[in-house]
Amino acid sequence: MTTPVAFIGHLTAGRAQMGTSLAFHLTFAVLGVGLPFMMLMAEGMHLRTGDPVWRALARRWAKAFAILFAVGAVSGTIISFELGLLWPGFMRYAGPLIGMPFPRLVHAKLKAAKALKVKESLITILATWAGGMMYMKLHVKRSKF
Question: Is the pLDDT of residue 145 over 50?
Answer without folding.
Answer: no
